[in-house]
C-alpha cells in the first residue's frame, strides 16, 4: 500500500521551472511586436494587438515589459545585444581598434536588407516624437557608451590611445557615428556592412591612435 501511495505522490509532484522559458517568452513577444509594427506601424499598434499576435494575456506580457515603449526599445537595441562578444573583447584587453571594428561590423549587419533595417529606422523616428521611448533608448545606449569609454581609458593608460581625449566624449562620438552610418544602411537598404565597418575603422584610427 505504501509504494502505491508513494507512486501517486511522485506523479503529482510539481515540475521544476524551465530556466530558459522567460527568454523564450520574451523573444516570442518581440517577434509578435515586429510583425504588428511592420503591418500597422508603431502608433497604430496597441499592446492588446501585440498580446493577441503573441497569444499572451496582457498580464503575462507585463511580466516582461512595462509598456509598449519598452518593447520598441528592446527591438531597437537587439542589434547591440548581438555585439556583446565584441564588447567583452574590449574589456578583455583586445586591441581597441580591432574590437571597435568588430562591434561596428556586427551592429551594421543588423541594419542590412529590407526588414529589420527599415524597422529600426522607423523606431528611431518614433523616438523623436515619444519621450518615453527616447529615454528608454538613451538609458540602454548609455550602458554601451560607458563600456566603450572604459576601454578607451584603459588604452590611454597603456599608451595605445590619444591621451588628450575625454574617454566619454570619444565614446559618445563613436556611438553617434555608428548610429548615423547604420541609419544610412537602413535607408539605402543595401548590403554594405563590411564597407561601412572599414570606414568606421579608418575614422576610429584617426581619432584614437596616439599622435606622433
Describe the structure.
The protein is mainly alpha-helical. The chain has two domains: 19-65, Orthogonal Bundle (Arc Repressor Mutant, subunit A); 67-208, Orthogonal Bundle (Tetracycline Repressor, domain 2). 73% of the residues lie in helices and 0% in strands. It has eleven helices and no strands. Helix 5 (68-81) crosses helix 8 (116-127). The longest helix has 27 residues, at 131-157. It is elongated, with a radius of gyration of 22 Å.
Quick overview of this protein structure:
This protein has 212 residues and is mainly alpha-helical. It contains eleven helices and no strands.
Question: Which key phrases capture this entry?
Answer:
single chain; 212 residues; mainly alpha
How does the SSE layout of this entry go?
Layout: H1 2-11, H2 21-40, H3 47-54, H4 58-61, H5 68-81, H6 84-91, H7 96-109, H8 116-127, H9 131-157, H10 167-188, H11 193-208
Helix pairs in contact: 2-3, 2-5, 5-8, 5-9, 6-7, 7-11, 8-10, 9-10, 10-11
CATH fold naming of the largest domain? Tetracycline Repressor, domain 2
Mean pLDDT over all positions? 83
- Integer count of domains: 2
Percent of residues in helices comes to over 70%
What spatial form do the alpha-carbon principal axes imply?
A: elongated
Radius of gyration from the alpha-carbon trace, in angstroms: 22 Å
DSSP, total strands: 0
CATH class of the largest domain: Mainly Alpha
Terminus-to-terminus distance: 88 Å
Return the CATH architecture of the largest domain: Orthogonal Bundle
Amino acid at each position: 500500500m505504501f509504494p502505491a501511495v508513494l507512486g501517486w505522490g511522485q506523479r503529482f509532484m510539481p515540475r521544476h521551472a524551465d530556466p530558459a522559458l522567460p527568454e523564450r517568452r520574451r523573444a516570442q513577444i518581440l517577434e509578435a511586436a515586429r510583425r504588428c509594427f511592420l503591418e500597422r506601424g508603431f502608433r497604430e499598434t496597441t499592446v492588446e494587438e501585440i498580446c493577441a499576435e503573441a497569444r499572451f494575456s496582457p498580464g503575462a506580457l507585463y511580466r516582461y515589459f512595462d509598456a509598449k515603449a519598452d518593447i520598441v526599445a528592446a527591438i531597437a537595441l537587439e542589434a547591440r545585444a548581438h555585439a556583446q562578444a565584441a564588447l567583452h573583447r574590449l574589456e578583455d584587453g583586445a586591441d581597441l581598434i580591432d574590437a571597435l571594428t568588430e562591434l561596428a561590423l556586427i551592429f551594421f549587419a543588423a541594419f542590412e536588407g529590407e526588414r529589420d533595417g527599415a524597422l529600426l529606422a522607423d523606431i528611431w523616428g518614433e523616438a523623436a516624437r515619444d519621450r518615453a521611448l527616447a529615454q528608454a533608448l538613451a538609458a540602454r545606449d548609455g550602458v554601451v557608451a560607458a563600456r566603450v569609454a572604459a576601454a578607451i581609458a584603459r588604452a590611454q593608460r597603456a599608451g595605445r590611445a590619444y591621451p588628450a581625449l575625454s574617454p566619454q566624449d570619444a565614446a559618445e562620438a563613436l556611438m553617434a557615428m555608428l548610429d548615423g552610418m547604420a541609419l544610412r544602411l537602413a535607408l539605402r537598404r543595401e548590403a554594405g556592412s563590411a564597407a561601412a565597418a572599414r570606414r568606421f575603422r579608418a575614422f576610429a584610427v584617426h581619432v584614437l591612435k596616439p599622435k606622433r
